[in-house]
Structures are given as structure tokens and as C-alpha cells.
Amino acid sequence: MEITRIRLLVLLLIIGSSTHFCFSQKNDWDNKFLIVLDVQKNDTDRLQSDSSFQAFIESLNAAIELSNPQNVIYIMGIHKQLNLSLTFPNLYISLNTEAMCLDDRMSRVNKTVFLKEEAMGNVFKVEELTNFLKKNNAKEIILTGLLAEECVSLSCIGGLDQAYDMYIIPEAIIGESQESKNKVIKELTGKGIKIVNLDAQKYD
After folding, report:
1. Residue 27: C-alpha distances to residues 23, 94, 169 (Å)
2. Omega of the bond prior to 89 within 30 degrees of 0, cis?
3. What pLDDT is recorded for position 22?
4. Residue 164 and residue 166: Cα distance in Å, rounded?
5. Average pLDDT, whole number, for the chain?
6. Phi, psi dihedral angles at 143 (to 5 degrees)
7. Which of 57, 69, 163, 55 is nearest to 105 (CA)?
8. Which pTM was predicted?
9. pLDDT digits (tens, 9 = 90+) for 1-32
């Protein structure tokens, strides 16, 4: 009878420990902020013929689904265009609203969207974003989106400079080519950027 009680107690301890482990993993993911960079229809339409594009969208949506909806941030690049008119002013600049549309194949879980200048590579130069992150006491940030060689890379370094713990999900990032993307990821990890294993997170 005593042995049975001991076995039961050990079993309960094991169950409790494993539950705590899973809970901790979930909390760990929930505390991270997910930034989605420039996944706009104007850019992604050019990439959809690539066989890896569908895998990218699926991985990106999986990352969004795993995240705390309040911690998902969408970044949209501002596209400006030069206009010629027969009336005054003859030459003026306006926003290309058609280009400023997030890809509708991407999951949208909130309305947290920040705009950045098209030429601005480092997203942490967007004051509204940095204010939002400070207000929400963000410490850990995952970057996804495009392109690996440009905005993703520059933003990763920018985040490190701001003392954030920076993460990337390789499957949820697009590069100019797989080779150049792999090279960038290797360089970033060498500078302290951590990689999130998306498949491991799905089953935690």
C-alpha cells in the first residue's frame, strides 16, 4: 500500500513538472513581440511564383498564430510616387495607396500597423514603434518578413543596438535568394541574433 502511494506521488510530480515546463514554454513565447516587416501585396506578388513563397506564408502565419495577438506588430513601407499634372502644382508627390496594402494571405490578428519610409531599412528608427515597445515593456523581439538582406538584417542590428533580445525565424523570412539569405542568417547569428525553431514551438 505504501509503495502504491509512493508511485502515485512520483507520477503526480512528473505530471506537474511536465505541465509546468509546457506552461513555461508557452509563457516564454507569449512574452516575445513578433514584428512582420513589409509583407505587402506590391512586393509579394512578384515572389508568389517562387516555390518557397507558399512555405514562407504558412510559416509566417504559424508564427502569428503562436504569438500573443496583442504582441504582433505589422510594419508597412510607405510607397511614394511622383505625379505630373497639367494644373498647379505641376509636379507633386503622393502616396501610392495601392502599393501600401498588406498581403491578404497573411493572418491579421489586430490593427497594430506602423508605417516606415520605404528607404528606411532599420525599423527601430520608427518613433511610433519604439514608443509602443517601451510602453509595453518589450524585451524580446522576433523579426519576420522581407527582405533578409535589407530590412530584416538592418532591423536585427538596430534592435541589438536598442538592447533588445533579437530573434529570427528563418522559414518566415524571404531573401533575394536562398544562398544570400543563408549567408545573412549566418552573419546575424554570429552577432548574437537567436533563431526560433518554429517546429519545436508548434508542439510545446
Report:
1. 6, 44, 18
2. yes
3. 42
4. 6
5. 81
6. -105, 135
7. 57
8. 0.79
9. 555 555 544 444 544 444 443 433 444 688 99
Can you read off the three cell numbers belonging to residue 122?
A: 532599420
* Bond into 60 cis (ω within 30): no
Q: Is 183 exposed, middle or buried (0-12, 13-18, 19+ CB in 10 A)?
A: middle
Q: ∠ at Cα 164 (162, 168), nearest 5°?
A: 120
Q: Can you read off the three cell numbers belonging to residue 105?
A: 494571405
Phi and psi (nearest 5°) for 200? -65, -40
19-65 tens-digit pLDDT: 443 433 444 688 999 999 999 988 787 776 667 788 999 999 999 99
Q: Which H or E run includes 185?
A: helix 178-190
Q: Which residues contact 40 (CB under 8 A, 6 or more apart)?
A: 76, 77, 99, 100, 101, 102, 103
Helix and strand element counts for the chain (H, E): 7, 8
pLDDT for position 77: 86
Alpha helices in 31-164 (DSSP H): 41-44, 53-66, 127-135, 153-161
